[in-house]
What we know:
six-stranded antiparallel β-sheet; 3 helices
Amino acid sequence: MGNRRAMRTTGWVLFLGGLMSGLCAAVAQPSAPTDTTRVGAPTTAEAAPERLDRRGGVFRTTPLFYVAEEAATLHNHSGLNAPVTQLPMRTPVRRLACEADWCRVHTEGGTTGYVADTALSNVWVRVSKAKRRVYVYRGTELAHAFEADMAYNSFADKKRNGAEDRPDHWRTPEGAFYVVHKNPQSEFHRALVLNYPKVEDARRGLDAGLISRAQYEAIQQAQEEHRMPPMGTDLGGWIEIHGDGTGDATAWTQGCVAIRNTAMDVIWEQVRVGTPVLIE
């Protein structure tokens, strides 16, 4: 967590995807939602939870999902062994219809086919450092909101690893991430490990002399392969959403987001590897 402990909705809420290999976009939203507010309808084309689709002269809402946990095979027909292509984890797709454990989907590349419904998810998480809350959404619908403990320095963005002699750097990074690993045996009950540091962090760290070229390339390769990046560089790592939180919205972690164990148990059942996480 944070070095072992432990987005900005000014007018747009990113529906992450880490759909980050190139697809990460926004939902129209004039202000950050409260516990009972729906996120507004999307207008951009990259990765909003819903998309307006014109068919037969009539606009209809098409929910956006993403491929979770591992690559999914896209088939020509449901239930038949007629594969078209592989969709990597975190690929955004428009879900058109589902029946008998299969969903008909349309990809950003323009291909239509069928994938197993278990391969898809529309769950995403938003962390508000200012409000010290964790919000869980299903598409545009807010499903849960929990009080959260934040890092010792809960105001600034993370730039490097913190330490006893530089506690100001015990910070939670801001931006679009995803769950890269679920740890059921965390020392903090359960933990959802995020894919920090990312390539953009590594590039900044390389320019600042915090990491070597080899460390930069290792982080880059991990991101391309959708696996955990190196966590032991001077950029810091092990940024998690985990349990053992106080429920009082305090600031004590070294970079992580801590919620009560009962809240962690709720999130655990809904979040999968690949689930987008927006930290603002």
